Amino acid sequence: MAKTPTNPPPAPPATDPVNLREALEERYLAYALSTIMGRALPDARDGLKPVHRRILYGMQILKLDPNTAFKKCAKIVGDVMGSFHPHGDQAIYDALVRLAQDFSSRYPLVDGQGNFGNIDGDSAAAYRYTEARMTDVAGLLLEGIDEDAIDFRDNYSGDQQEPIVLPSAFPNLLANGAQGIAVGMATSIPPHNVAELLDAALYLIAHPRAVGDQLMAFVQGPDFPTGGIVVDTQEQIAETYRTGRGSFRVRARWSIEDTGRGTWVVVIAEIPYGVQKGRLYEKLAELINDKKLPLVADVRDESAEDVRLVIEPRARNVDAKVMMESVFRLSELETRFPVNMNVLVDGVVPRVVSLADALNQWLHHRRDVLLRRSRYRLEKIQHRLEMLAGMLIVFLNLDEVIRIIREEDEPKDALMARFSMSETQANYVLDTRLRSLRRLEEMTLRAEHDALVKEKGEIETLLSDEPAQWKKIAGQIRDARKKFGPETKIGKRRTTFELAPKADEADIVEAMIEREPVTVIVTKKGWIRALKGHLADVSNVQFKGDDEMLVSFFAETTSKVLVLTTNGKMYTLDASKLPGGRGFGDPIRLMVDIDDGEDIVAVFPYAPGVKMLIAGSDARGFVVSQDDMISSTRKGRGVLGVDSPSKAVLVKPVSGDHVAVIGDNRKLLVFPLSQIPEMARGKGVRLQKYKDGLLSDARTFAMADGLTWNDSAGRLFTVHQAELAEWIGNRADAGRLPPKGFPKNNRFGP
User: Fold this and answer.
1) Which end of the chain, N or C, is surrounded by fewer C-beta atoms within 10 Å?
2) Which listed residue (28, 31, 129, 156) is catalytic?
């Protein structure tokens, strides 16, 4: 049986080699440009991204003007998606919802009916349930769009036209702000008060070279829809507007409400922009439960239409300012709004602009719109004058015109030949109804003709006179300001400016920690822990391996613990962050960055204002305040300067008027404390002179009470002033052998 021949497979099509690197760069660049131009950055002229512009234009096509009936958002979203925005319906609806939320948009562009979400963070209802129409502000953005005010381009399918930019008789970029993230760049512009922006624009028209500092006389700063208080200085605000970059520190507005009998609560009436009240309330409750806000007893949400969060203090004697400062630090009642005024300049070039640049972009766009609308109107007037001229010929030659229309086979040609009419005029005459040939109608046409001639002259003058153009724009701005002035409900400033109250840093930190007594245990190997309560007996405390206790002392969770190491550095620990007493604690080295090869010399609680005697093994030292020992970083703070092989060996509290020093050579010296300087840091001065040996111990005491020490058996010895005469000398003397009974370890004891 013969086999059926099989056809060979077709040869693969010829392909041109492509450089992968170049192809990736080209495609990624195209994607980046698409994201920047088509999604993320607003146009500096109308302040809109394409999706917002398409929503407003789609609503205008649907004739959803402010005074018309609402239509379903499903209808709006469907038309916008089908005609202009080929993206997901949810993305379009989310953008529409944000334009309608009065807590998201300072001047809403969409008037919504139904559930459009709330400040608690609840989302809007599905678009089949909600309805919308445009607001007066949106009407200003679209004003003149049918009068050739702007350019159009083909939509994505090429069957319709969409606007490249809106005429924008409203400074929307700065009034409503904008936020977006593109490829390699982002934008974040806060909303502002439009009355202030319009005043600044009028000043800019009169002073074209004005800079941001001059415009700050009109534009105080951002004006958020949710109010709040900006606590930045005027210098910081001015710098942000000058460079187009920075941030605004925004706080909630709060007040104290008297509840009788000496009690009070704090009421939050406004929260920072962009913060969801529901999430904020949950966070505050969580902080209280975790005891991170010890000054706060409770928080309640009593909001109805307005925001009302009630914060109840732990006790009536709590300082309200300190309590609120602690709340601001841990919650979103204080936020930072980033500013990055990155926009598409002239709708094409992404650039960070200043306040003056942004207003100039809008003003020059308004001038372009004015010129285009004026030329459009001039063309309409010229066309109408041509029609009126034809009709006036008819009235002057009415009988002849009627005869031609009745008798001529081609009346249009006859009219054009007889009266030198244009084809357009002849068609208009032939289309005119007989009732329009009344005498009264002739008078109306003559009046209209005269008015149009006058208007034509005014427009031609305007087109040739730039100062007149700016005067016209200034008049339009003044009209807009009347609608949105500070005396109107929507135009009244909501965000105010104050300087943050100066509160003591230590008080604020302390207010954020639950004050509880603890006993701090430190071992010789450098392990530390904090046991709850003040324990008089710590003999039962267990240690790891062959470790043993170095020191124990009473403190509170709000206390700070100071650690001195052999290189003379002082480290600071927070008692609230020390490990509990269930285990053996943690090494201090894990909490701070102690240099390699250095050991811990002393650990003690911080006491404000207390002075300490600090000294090294070379017997050099000085008096230093504990306030100068505090370190704010893990790397510590250098206090005592020591040169190798010397090292820091002691730090003791200063009391009395004399100093007793003893060295390894068992020589004791007593001299006045006044001979030791007080310093914040340094090597200090020599306390005692040695031929060989190092410093063993030192202590300060009151001469009137005598010098005391503990022997090896724990007995207390006291040597009074008269008995100390032979050891009293001056700083840096050598000293003499100590009195009989002085401990052989050359230590004064605790």
Assistant:
1) N
2) 129
